Amino acid sequence: MTEPVLTVAEMREAEKAAMDRGTNEWELMQRAGTNAAQWIMRMAAGRPVTVLCGPGNNGGDGYVIADVLGRSGYEVDVIAPVEPKSETARRARSAFQGGVSSDGALRTGVAVDCLFGYGLDRKVEEPFSKILEKLAASPCYKIAIDVPSAVQSDAARVLGPLPRYDLTLALGAWKQAHFLMPAMPAMGEKRLVTIGLEFEDVSSTVSAAPKITSPKPDAHKYNRGLLAIVAGAMPGAPLLAAEAAMRAGAGYVKLFSDHSHPDAPAELVIEQGSLADALSDGRISALLIGPGLGRDDAARERLAKVLESGKPAVLDADALHLLDPELLAMADAKTLCVTPHEGELAKLCETFGVTAESKLDRARALADVTGLTVLAKGPDTILVHDGMTSFFPRGSSWLSVAGSGDVLAGILGSRLATHGDPRRAAEESVWLHHEAARLASPAFSAGELAHAVKPAMASFL
Ligand SMILES: NC(=O)C1=CN([C@@H]2O[C@H](COP(=O)(O)OP(=O)(O)OC[C@H]3O[C@@H](n4cnc5c(N)ncnc54)[C@H](OP(=O)(O)O)[C@@H]3O)[C@@H](O)[C@H]2O)[C@@H](O)CC1
Ligand SMILES: Nc1ncnc2c1ncn2[C@@H]1O[C@H](COP(=O)(O)OP(=O)(O)O)[C@@H](O)[C@H]1O
Ligand SMILES: [K+]
């Protein structure tokens, strides 16, 4: 099932729509608190629970949670530095029969943070900041309800002390912050608690693990996809991309390079000479250019030839520094996928006159202005294609090694050569990259990562 990722405004709309259909806010809060309590009991397994309740409906959820836990025989403390402000939260406060203190020690066991949810809109100050500091210092098992209380739900900005949580329970739907830096790594395991909301016109989702199919019975090397990797000034990076591409499904991987490659595997076909001639091979189903390309006139010339060829292509690394409106006009942007890291994204945005505050907004605006499929890499990888945004579970931080971007580009090129769908290829490439990293961890080289793409493929067949 595709799981939507909502902004605060979209979340409020979905809740309003539920109320228009006859489910009132009290009912939604009961569902949220009751369903979250099931997870909490699973984690607490009998240990005492402290619930921290804030002034809004996130605090209201906290009182419902405390009530359900108390009725189930749990020892529950509630710490609420202020009285609830919203009517529904006040009702939940009154329904809770147990004791509430305005401050106090956190008992070891489990702490459930319901100070603020998606309504947080400014810096967290005392008394709330002191409680979050206490929570951060406590050895207890920490659960954030909806979002960690110091995290702004749309942009993942950190507005106060941010403890490291063991579990974050998203209520009703995922929020953007669940998948964005800098807040994401503090959230621990993340689980979605459904409360029966319905979502229409969703434009952002969590990428679901892909299903990769084996070659058809009548497959041969050309109809399984021929990826041509166009090299340039430096020989190493395109070779690394080729090592990954050969293990990601394409039936044939060629390297168009004028270098000698004594380290290249025997099965990699290397063609030298006229690039225009090489590109005229009608059997090529996708191209990759950028790793090791260089940024001089010769590199620009090679990029122009790739774009003129009209074939689906992945543009990475140096190609992202060279790409400009004049070059892009030679191609059909719909068939192109760019894979910028933060620096390359900034460069592309400058070139195409895009200004936006966050990485997410920059990626969306760039895709909008250019029509490109944008895979904005990093710990919080974001894919934007034709108005749709996909977020991904976090990959291993061991991926922060030189050359791992070349491996990703190779996988993406290989998937694109296989079926020609840029969005699907980009999603598959991120999952395969993350899985290869998991299998190769810890402390792998990019070459080892490229080799781990083969067992990673087995995880998605
Ligand atoms: N609506 C629904 O149907 C459902 C909603 N659900 C739950 O509601 C949550 C959203 O609730 P919410 O909108 O009441 O906001 P919430 O996150 O509790 O906090 C806002 C409160 O804090 C205040 N405030 C903000 N920043 C502050 C600061 N820095 N320092 C101090 N105060 C600050 C702000 O008041 P203000 O002072 O701005 O007037 C307001 O009182 C959501 O995450 C989910 O858990 C579920 O039960 C499902 C059904
Ligand atoms: N801390 C991290 N956590 C998860 N993934 C990371 C992290 N750092 C980098 N990556 C991933 O590793 C790859 C690095 O790509 P890139 O910056 O182009 O490296 P290079 O240019 O050395 O090949 C990207 O796919 C990125 O998403
Ligand atoms: K919270």
Automatic annotation (TrEMBL):
Catalysed conversion reaction: (6S)-NADPHX + ADP = AMP + phosphate + NADPH + H(+); (6R)-NADHX = (6S)-NADHX; (6R)-NADPHX = (6S)-NADPHX; (6S)-NADHX + ADP = AMP + phosphate + NADH + H(+)
Domain YjeF C-terminal: residue ranges: 228-451
Sequence positions that bind AMP: K377, G378, P379, D380, T381, G405
Domain YjeF N-terminal, chain residue ranges per copy: 27-177
Required cofactor(s): K(+); Mg(2+)
EC numbers for this chain: 4.2.1.136, 5.1.99.6
A Pfam family hit: YjeF_N
Binding note for cofactor: Binds 1 potassium ion per subunit.
Organism superkingdom: Bacteria
Keyword Lyase: yes
Binding-site positions, (6S)-NADPHX: 57-61, 117-123, 146, 237, 292, 341, 406
Binding residue positions for K(+): N58, D113, S149
Keyword Endoplasmic reticulum: no
UniProt KW keywords: ATP-binding, Isomerase, Lyase, Metal-binding, Multifunctional enzyme, NAD, NADP, Nucleotide-binding, Potassium
Family: In the N-terminal section; belongs to the NnrE/AIBP family. Belongs to the NnrD/CARKD family.
Chain's role: Catalyzes the dehydration of the S-form of NAD(P)HX at the expense of ADP, which is converted to AMP. Together with NAD(P)HX epimerase, which catalyzes the epimerization of the S- and R-forms, the enzyme allows the repair of both epimers of NAD(P)HX, a damaged form of NAD(P)H that is a result of enzymatic or heat-dependent hydration.
Subunit text: Homotetramer.
PANTHER family for the chain: ATP-DEPENDENT (S)-NAD(P)H-HYDRATE DEHYDRATASE (PTHR12592:SF0), ATP-DEPENDENT (S)-NAD(P)H-HYDRATE DEHYDRATASE FAMILY MEMBER (PTHR12592)
Name this protein carries in UniProt: Bifunctional NAD(P)H-hydrate repair enzyme
Organism: Qipengyuania citrea
Name of the gene this protein is made from: nnrE
